[in-house]
Fold each of these.
Amino acid sequence: MQLAVQVAGSGFPILCLHGHPGSAQSMGVFTQHLSQQFKTLAPDLRGYGASRVQHPFVMADHLQDLIELLDQQQIERCWVLGWSLGGILALELALRCPDRIQGLILIATAARPRGSHPAVSWQDNAYTGIASIVNRIFPGWQWNIETFAKRSLYRYLLQQHTAFAYQRLANEGMSAYLQTSKFASQALSQALRQGYSRLDDLGQIQAPCLMLWGACDRHITPAASLETAQHLPNCDYCCYPHTAHLLPWEIPQQILRDIDRWLLA
């Protein structure tokens, strides 16, 4: 299928891949900055955002879609930046077509993803629903953050409950969540149930890699991210304290500075 894609800037290309649930729009924290020096391409993956589907698919279909996207854009070689699920797909691209990958920037991800998320209660869902609706109407409202959001499931996604993070959730996160299809959720769930792991294959990736993750991530644990970094032959990495799975929305300036420094090194 032909993916919906947001293209910005000029220069050497960076393919920016979102997580689950997510969309090209949710990668704006990266593309708005990186497009000042690079050509950024942020697709809606199959079953997400505007890349609508009517039938079930498997995770491998994402890879074929992305290779076809690079062909359509006449991109022979690129950097790949992936957040969460996007990082897993970045690793898969590097394994499938290494000659086309300049290097990888991997955010809150792992080649053998493991989580430590507690069981979800009805109170969690209730507070999350209320917090999300109010935040959509009044993005970043501190009263809502203190009253509802910190008691909701957002407490596992964020450690730093800043107005900026909640503005991103309101403007990008909620629409991405609502536009994520059941087929996308089923494809991811199927891969996880099958015990997805690519650790044994990471030695094949010779391209330079940068891995960044939050010390309090409950969706993909810091141990899982570190394990991946240690299996990659050419990997720099950093674990940020007091951050979780949405760390690019918690400490955006620090994340972008570290990416810039690494790309220019």
Amino acid sequence: MRTARSERLSIGQVAERTGLSVSAIRFYEELGLVAPVRSDSGRRLFLRSDIRRLSFIVIAQQLGFSLDRIREQLSALPQARTPTQRDWTRISRQFRADLDARIALLRRTRDRLDGCIGCGCLSLKNCALYNPEDRARLRGPGPRYLLGDPAVGTGEADRS
């Protein structure tokens, strides 16, 4: 048994606590991200720890993580007990590398947005300096310099 009935919350109470709509909570249930138990009359009853799970889902989505990735992380949490600080720490470590990479990309974008981003457009007068003869395209499609490739002329980008 998961917990005493008095510790369970209705879907309305969970919606009020999380700021999510009832339909969003039902959607997350359909995806297997939360698993309420049913009362004898069929009402959904949630654990208090489901508030934390739903809050994690909201934050992870705002950070750009897919629902599949979120489900993968939540599946590592215990279903029969409230997750501990150790459980949440393990999950946060999984996301840390992704977040660090995104932060680095955002910083590069911020710092280089007004200059060449290595997109291969050749439409700026500066492209002759930053991307002569469209060399960035040899590294692949898209904004190569923002994706982390060194700029042409630094020596590294010219080596293949």
Amino acid sequence: MNKKRIMIVDDEAPFTRLLQLSLEQTGHYDVRTENNPLRAMQAAKQFLPDLVLMDVMMPGMDGGALAAQFQASNSLNNVPIVFLTAAVKREEVQAHEGCIGGLPFLAKPVDLAELTQCLQQHLGP
């Protein structure tokens, strides 16, 4: 079975580490984390993720600006991006069926079952 490649971009290292361990324990994912959004593009070009989980509010560059860079990149423009944010409540995400501004969102703290369902929705089983 080919593992899906997931990249997590979030400035909180303990959060990315916990998420990485949780996803890798499923046996379905190879995960790379990047805690500096300014290095995320270079890291993504090396890793070539199947999907990116991205924080919205980060120092140096916010997730919206970083997502625009991904979408402008020839090698990364087809990679789905799912935003992770503490700026919206889980109820708001559910009320908008997981999308805000046309892009998928998950509220922090991330529920692992909800995240797994989101990954399967975007990547297939």
